[in-house]
Structures are given as C-alpha cells and as structure tokens.
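Table S2 (text version). Query chain:
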Amino acid sequence: MIKINFTNYYAPVYSDRKKLLADRQEDAMQTLRTDQKKNGGGSTLAKQGGLRATGGTAGTAAAGPGATPWRRVAMGVFFSVIWSSAFVAGKVAVAELGPFVSLFYRFAGTVLVLLLLCGKSLWGPQGGQALAAGMLMGLLNNVLYLGLSFSALRLVSASWVVVIVSCSPFITLFLGMARGLETFSLRKLLGFAISLGGVVVMVGVVRPESAALTGVLLAAGATLAFAAGAVLFRGKYGDLPLLPVNFWMSVCAMACFAPAAWRSGATPLDASLPALVALAWLAVVSLAGMALWLLLIRTQGASNAAAYNMLNPLSGLALSAVVLGTSIGVNDVLGAAGIVAGLAVAMGWRVSKRRFFYFRDLLVFSQAARMLKLNRFFKR
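Corresponding structure-token output:
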C-alpha cells in the first residue's frame, strides 16, 4: 500500500510561498516610503511601469520584482484581436463596396458613436488641443496608414504588405530614440527580429516582380506614418483624453476618404446584410481598437505598443479559421511560435516565482491524485 504524507510534502512549498509574499510586500512598502521622501508623495512605481501620473495606476507594480504584469500583456493581446478582426470584416465589406468607400462609412459610423459618447468634452478645456492632435494623428494613423496600405495591396501581394507593416516596431524604436523617448535596447532589437522572422514564416514571402516596387514603397510609407503617429502621441499628446482625440482622428479620415467614396457612387443601400454587419463592426474596431492603441502607447511606450502589431497575423489567422474556415498549416504554427518567442524576448516576459509555485503545485497535486487512484485500484 502506498502512503503519501501531504502535510510534510507541501509544507516547504507553502512556507516558500508565504516568505515570498512577505518579502514582496516589504519591498513594495519600502519603495513607496523612499518614493514619498524623494518626490513629496509622487509615485515612481507608476514610472517604473511606464504609466503617467494622469494616465494609469501603479497596481501592476505590486506584482513584485522581476514579475511580468500579465494584465498589460492581456490588454495588448486583446488589442491585436480587435484590430485583426478588421481584416476579416474588411474582406466582406470591400468585396461589395470597395476599399475607400468602406473606409469612409467605417469612420462615419465611428464619428456618430463618438459624438454621442464625448458630448461636451469635445469643447472642454482641452478641446482645442484634442482637435489639433486628432487631425494630425488621423492624417498619420488613419488616412496615410490605411490609404497607403490599401493602395499597396493593389500592386503587391498581401504577404509583402504584412511583413513590411510588421517592421513598425523597429521604426518606432529608432524614431523614439531620436526624440529621446526610447533608449537603445539590443534585447528589443533581437526580440523584434525573431518575431519578424515568425511573421515571414507564417505569411510566406515570394520574390516580388519588378513592377511591384511601387507597392513596396507604398507599404513602407504606411509603416513610417504609423510609427510616426505612435511616437508623436507618446511624446506630445499622451496626456490628452483618448475619446475626443479618437473623434477628431475619425473626422479627419472621414473627410479625406469622402471624395473617393463620392466618385465611386456605391452606398450602403446597395450592400447586402453581411456587408452592413461588417461595416458596423469596422466602426466598432475604429472606436475600441484605436482607443486601445492610444492607451497602449500611453501606458507601455510607443515601441512596445507597436510590437503587439506583430501578433496581428496570428490573431487574424485564428479569427479566419473560426469565421471563414481557413485551414492552419505547419508553417502557421511555427511562425506563431516565433512571433510569441520574439515578443517574450523583446518585452522581457517572465513568469514570477508565485506563478511558478502555483503551476508546480498543480502538477504535484495531479500526480498525487493519480497515485491515490492506483493505490485504490491495487487495494481492490
């Protein structure tokens, strides 16, 4: 008969965990006391987490030294899923209405919703600053990025556009260094390179034709505009309210895409019900996805926020498999592993000792349960 002394076995595990939690709380309190003496009550915990005093809390700092704030990672993954869903919905809408008509009505719907949500805040004390920021950000992150990307898709394969746009973390990092917002990090460059390799493996890149050079340049221009918008918001407009900025960004995009929509003559009245649903969802993406994007820049930095765009091929493939029935191959799995591994290196993702003990306990408990079942079996 097999006997297991659970008390003696688990005692070291729980004593280690209890000591770890006590040390973590003492470190946090010591940091707060030192911080208050230096800054008169201001919090460097927020600065360590990449948060501004007006834009976040220091809750993630309590995760302990060396631990990864997984809630912030989850926010980046959620942004990628929302943002990638626009590619799935865009396939349906663009097939019937065309790219620029879809973009016009997408941002028109976003403007109507945000007008109701923002209300008087559009004309508040920071209304003028939000207007100027929104117009400039809308030109960079909505008009140039989306307009040049759709134009590039007409001249070069989609895989090339995806790979070129996935280079945005590199450009964002170097632009941020030029503006004094980022510091050089070899670890980030290595992680971004690994993730980019994963993107190449996933989407597959064939040699472009000589006539496709224009499409490559358009995609590069879209990537540069996207990165410039991220650095601009981080350095100059990060303290402004997000929804009014998003409202004026959408107004700028709607106005710029209006001439192309008017020339095409296509309207939502001519579209089918699936296309209308897709248009409505695109408006939701412009509202929620752009708000999350700005929040990521504010709380995690421009280059880290741009890095989550490397998850877009993975998120888009998962959504396409669920919604459109797209098959998943070996290259997709290998590329996804490379993307995640590269982001883990670039952002320093680590599992804390607490989580390690938790998973170790689960493994030990499952093994013990199996042994108990075997014990009962042999007793019979």
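Notes on Table S2: The chain is about 75% helix and 0% strand. Residues 1-15, 39-67 have pLDDT under 50 and may be disordered.
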